[in-house]
């Protein structure tokens, strides 16, 4: 066997090994899409696009849950001390309730510096949640069981003032 054929067989086995490998490089379109998404999120947080809307029907009973509806806007908000999140809501409660919670992402779990809004009756209204500390916050909207689960329809708008 000459030197040339040995190098060709080495290259062929290396090609076979790399062809069978899963993963590999990430396609450029995914890298670009991720960078664009990160830029939009950063721009939205910095520029103050702190508005949103969510309208859903959610339910949970006997180990099964349902959720259908629409959510528009970021629930991650960069807020400064002295600002407030205004939450407008319209809720129809069959049973259970709805929690609207704003928590500081930098606080340790269980030590949030903000408040919960628990809505257990059908109705509409507006609540103001003041911000006492600058930071990155997360708005959470979830069902609240009453022992037998929950069945809630709601529309929630939020904005920063």
Describe the model.
With 161 residues, this protein is of the alpha+beta class. The chain contains two helices and nine strands; from the N terminus they run H-H-E-E-E-E-E-E-E-E-E. The strands form two sheets. A five-stranded antiparallel sheet has the order 2-1-9-4-7, with no helix packed on it. Strands 3-8-5-6 form a four-stranded antiparallel sheet, with no helix packed on it. It is globular.
Short description:
24% of the residues lie in helices and 48% in strands. It has helices spanning 3-20, 28-47; strands at 51-61, 64-72, 76-79, 84-95, 97-104, 116-119, 123-130, 135-144, 150-160. The chain is globular, with a radius of gyration of 25 Å.
- Taken in chain order, the helices and strands follow as HHEEEEEEEEE
The biggest beta sheet reads:
5 strands, antiparallel
Q: Which blocks of ≥5 consecutive residues have pLDDT under 50?
A: 17-21
- Looking across the biggest beta sheet, what order are the strands in? 2-1-9-4-7
Oligomer: single chain
Q: What is the count of β-strands?
A: 9
* Percent strand: over 45%
- Structural class estimated from helices and strands: alpha+beta
Summarize the amount of helix as a percent range: 10-25%
Spatial gap, N to C terminus: 79 Å
Number of helices in the DSSP assignment:
2
Look at the structure and give the mean pLDDT: 78
Shape descriptor reads globular
């Amino acid at each position: 066997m000459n030197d040339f054929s040995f190098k060709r067989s080495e290259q062929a086995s290396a090609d076979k090994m790399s062809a069978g490998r899963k993963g590999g490089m990430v396609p450029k379109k995914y890298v670009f899409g991720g960078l664009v998404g990160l830029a939009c999120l950063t721009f939205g947080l910095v520029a103050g696009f702190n508005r949103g809307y969510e309208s859903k029907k959610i339910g949970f009973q006997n180990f099964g849950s349902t959720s259908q509806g629409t959510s528009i806007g970021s629930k991650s908000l960069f807020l400064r001390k002295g600002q407030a999140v205004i939450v407008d809501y319209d809720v129809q409660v069959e049973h259970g309730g709805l929690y609207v919670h704003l928590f500081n992402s930098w606080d340790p779990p269980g030590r949030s510096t903000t408040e919960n809004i628990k809505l257990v009756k059908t109705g509409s209204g507006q609540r103001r949640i003041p911000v006492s500390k600058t930071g990155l916050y997360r708005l959470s909207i979830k069902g609240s069981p009453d022992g037998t689960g929950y069945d809630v329809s709601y529309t929630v708008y939020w904005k920063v003032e």
